[in-house]
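Let us work through a complete example step by step.
Step 1: write down the sequence.
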Amino acid sequence: MYKILTLTFFTTILIFNGCSMKEYTLFQDENRSEEPTDINDSVYHDEMVFENKIMPNDRVGIMVYNQSGAGPGQLTSMISSRGSQQGGSSSSQETQGLLVTQDGTVRLPLIGSATIQGLTEDEAAKYLMEEYGKYLRNPYVTVEIMNQRIYILGEVKKPGVVPVTNGTMNLIEAIARSGDLTDYAERRGILILRGDLRDPEVRMIDLTHMSTIQISSLFLKPNDIVYVQPRASKGRKIAFDEISPPFQLVSSILAPFVNITYLAKAWNY
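Step 2: predict the structure and record it as tokens.
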């Protein structure tokens, strides 16, 4: 009796193992290569010097100062669109600054509507200084994109949204900010999805060997999606957790009958 139950138990585990992993794993693609993505030196250099550009739906913090004299104390804040920095929570960050409209503009005092789409922070600051120079004697402008972020999912201890505070971020920093990888993380198959979500660029990163890291690029861009895939053992754990309660119930029901059978055989001997 126990042999039959054991055989049935492990057969069911194998069946549920494949089903659980298929349902549990995100971004599956049978046509995708499982080899690490090879990034050439030219692309790698471009990503090293990457500067994010302002796009529609970004939130930008704009500070405008007017310098009335030569001394450092003569710099007066005229306009501030950064909003409150207290708390630093993701919810407050979502409402800070000015929202760039779908046509790539923001509305500012004195100069009205200004098109900053496609400009870096430094380029936008220079452009706005020229515009404010028509109204102020010595304007100084700073621009900051305030909602730059990376999305990290899967087998990390704290998945979620990771703010990009330094203009750029690498994969190691994103994982560190997410509390490191879990024991079930597939370290040879970390996916990075970039660009149009209907047809994204997908990269595969293998962190287990220096030789594979050297052919990859660990630099991330704002709005990248990092997905740490689960190992096969995660599927076995899920399968076991799914089928364990029914088998425990069946086992508890059959246990008295099995014990009686063994006792009867022992009595006969």
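Step 3: interpret the result. The chain has two domains: 26-50+148-232, 59-145.
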